[in-house]
Amino acid sequence: MTNLFVLQLLNGVQLGVLLFLIAAGLTLVFGIMDVVNLAHGVLYMVGAYFVATFAALTGSFWWGLLLMLPAAVAVGLILEVVVIRRLYARSHLDQVLATFGLVMIANETVKIVWGVSPLSVPMPEILSGSVPLMGPLQYPVYRIAIIVAGLAVAGGLYLVINHTRIGMLLRAGATNRAMVSALGIDIGKLFAIVFTLGAVLACLAGALVAPILSVDTGMGESVLILTFVVVVIGGIGSIKGAFLGALLVAIVDTLGGVFGPILLREVLDPSAAGQAGRMLAPMLVYILMAAILCVKPAGLFGGRG
């Protein structure tokens, strides 16, 4: 049982750093630009397809990952200029409708370009295999690499947000966008930087997860709901809140799915416990969100309304 707990805890941390990469961009886009972007999960999917394509062309996962980054920047800039920039002055309902339409367009475009069959990305040779943790327990090297890479990105993002001029502008924009604009800052340029940064982070998450999951259309929708939960729990516009919220959501989701049925067997028969556990496990993250919002209505690190 201890080995199972440690294994699932590591799986939760690995999912948490991926959710953070997606949620960090989403919380900045919503907190600074006041744009509800339902197409943010599409960027996660596009990053996975980019790394699959470039890795197949070059024969190297590392070259595929490196080439994915400028491609992600280009996609982010194009989306901001062509679609998102036209939604700044529109209502949230208009933004939801427009970005939902963008999701459908992106999914169909992916089917046209890459087909409907899932793609696979070979795992880098240096990161294949497992490492011993405790006793007979082993954990895949690549999943540990994902955790390390996610934490490194989180650390770099923290330094940029808290110790650079662009970070100061981002924090100021999340706090009072109108004042930043009134002080002479080019708010359009700031918005383009924010959206592009969010696009690159989401694409990076998709690229990192590609070797351990199949790359297929619609893969972004499965993480988008959890990402919105992370943003709400952490507080809109807060990178620190996105990081803590991502870890909380991922660990609760992972541990609840495994240990929920096991704990219910103490009070129910095995078949009923398994069925009840499968039904209750997906609800745990929403129960967590409701509990946190009862105590902190703006999220863990959200500004006061």
UniProtKB/TrEMBL annotation:
Topology within the bilayer: Multi-pass membrane protein
Transmembrane segments: 12-31, 38-57, 63-84, 96-121, 141-161, 190-213, 219-236, 243-264, 284-303
One example GO MF annotation: transmembrane transporter activity
Gene Ontology terms describing biological process: amino acid transport
Cross-referenced InterPro entries: ABC_transp_permease, BCAA_transport_permease
Compartmental location: Cell membrane
The entry's keywords: Amino-acid transport, Cell membrane, Membrane, Transmembrane, Transmembrane helix, Transport
Main localization of the protein described in the UniProt heading: membrane
GO cellular component terms, A-Z: plasma membrane
Family, as annotated: Belongs to the binding-protein-dependent transport system permease family. LivHM subfamily.
UniProt-recorded name of the protein: Amino acid/amide ABC transporter membrane protein 1, HAAT family
Organism this protein belongs to: Roseivivax sediminis
